[in-house]
């Protein structure tokens, strides 16, 4: 079974330039997709699959995908030891993009189904609307993990 964690966001950069900036700043692999190099970049980071694309997802319950142009997601497969840090890696990438590329608003989702964070700038700093508090570390990472470890008693464990 695979698990994905996605960060949806907007940027004024065209996808190839955005992929270049993310690759350069994170030191990760992101190459143009073979089917449509203008719509998908794929690669890896920390042993996890990493994709950046102009998504076509539609809104689903509280997940307002249509408000965002880009989706950066990582994927792990059963048995991948990196699954233990998957959520934290994507949350830190989201902060890194906020800090270095001035991407102020975005949404972090688990398996394209559960909104675990929604970010926006506030006077006191970057703010998580789901937890309704300022993003501080390591507290934010602990909060995110708790939101997916067993949301609503589902038995789901990241």
How would you describe this structure to a colleague?
The protein is α+β, with helices and mostly antiparallel strands and 158 residues long. It has one domain (3-153). 25% of the residues lie in helices and 32% in strands. It is built from three helices and nine strands. The protein has helices at 15-26, 86-101, 139-149; strands at 3-9, 29-32, 40-45, 48-54, 70-76, 106-110, 114-122, 125-128, 133-134. The protein has a nine-stranded antiparallel β-sheet. A hairpin with a 4-residue loop joins strand 8 and strand 9. Helix 1 (15-26) packs across helix 2. It is globular and about 40 Å long. The termini are close together. 29% of the residues are buried.
Structure at a glance:
This protein is an alpha+beta fold and 158 residues long. The protein is built from three helices and nine strands.
Sequence-ordered SSE layout with sheet pairings:
Blueprint (H helix, E strand, L loop, with lengths): L2 E7 L5 H12 L2 E4 L7 E6 L2 E7 L15 E7 L9 H16 L4 E5 L3 E9 L2 E4 L4 E2 L4 H11 L9
Antiparallel strand pairs: 1-5, 1-6, 2-3, 3-4, 4-5, 6-7, 7-8, 8-9
Helix pairs in contact: 1-2
